[in-house]
Amino acid sequence: MIAIIDYDAGNLRSVEKAVAFLGEKAEITREPRKILGADGVILPGVGAFGDAMRNLQKYQLPEVVRTVAEKQIPLLGICLGLQLLFEESEESPNVPGLGICKGKILRIPPAPGTKIPHMGWNSLTYNHPGRLFRHIPENSFVYFVHSYYLKAEDPQIVKASAFYNVSIHASIEQGNVFGCQFHPEKSGDTGLAILKNFISLAKEG
Predict the structure, then answer these.
(1) What residues make up the domain containing 200?
(2) Computed from CA positions of residues 35, 202, 44, 70, in that sequence, does the dihedral angle turn out positive or negative?
(3) Exposed, middle or buried, 118 (CB in 10 Å: 0-12/13-18/19+)?
(4) Does the chain have fewer CB atoms within 10 Å around its N or its C terminus?
(5) What domain count does the chain have?
(6) How confident is the model over 147-162, as a mean pLDDT?
């Protein structure tokens, strides 16, 4: 079973449908017992960093998510969920993130002829081999919707990047902690293949 963490951050149903389409049971939950008993855990999210952290705290979930990471249960952060795995965001100064991974979330710099938020399809460049991208060709396109981007402290955890006014750390892997700045559940066959790889990793464990 894949647990999808419910902290009122939206985008839950589309993730649930994508996982179910791949033949795996998905459950939207905020119950620690179910989250910690799952084969894999997805932390989705759309919205503002500060609001999301306050919601996680309201439901007493930060320690649950950290425990998932400590127990090496495969954990996938999607979009805002990726950003929350890190230490801080320019979007919400003085609001600490989960701190599972080291790095900062920065605002995408403006540039002539480009719009913020970054909304649309971009290709991925692979920085290092990543298990989420097994059998997925480099330069595959995925779907982004965001105004802030990750700059990870350790370049070794960055598995894929995209370019939109700046080099964006688009996917990370640190042990069994994974993250995608893009939305795999909205990225067609490529996104489904990424989710399938995550589910396979979860079932292997």
Answers:
(1) 2-204
(2) positive
(3) buried
(4) C
(5) 1
(6) 97
* pTM above threshold 0.85: yes
Q: What's the mean per-residue pLDDT of the chain? A: 97
Give how far the C-alpha of residue 183 lies from the chain's centroid of Cα atoms, to the nearest Å: 8
The CATH number that applies at residue 30 is: 3.40.50.880
* Catalytic residue ranges: 79, 183, 185
Quick: pLDDT tens for 51-95: 999 999 999 999 999 999 999 999 999 999 999 999 999 999 999
Cβ-in-10-Å burial (0-12, 13-18, 19+) of 55 comes to middle
Taking the C-alpha atoms of residue 80 and residue 61, their distance in angstroms, rounded to an integer, is 15
Tell me the C-alpha distance between 6 and 29, whole Å: 5
CA distance 190 to 187: 6
pLDDT for the residue 205:
67
Residue 10 above 90 pLDDT? no
> Which three-class secondary structure string do you get for 116-166?
CCEEEEEECEECCCCHHHCCCCCCCEEEEEECEEEEECCHHHEEEEEECCC
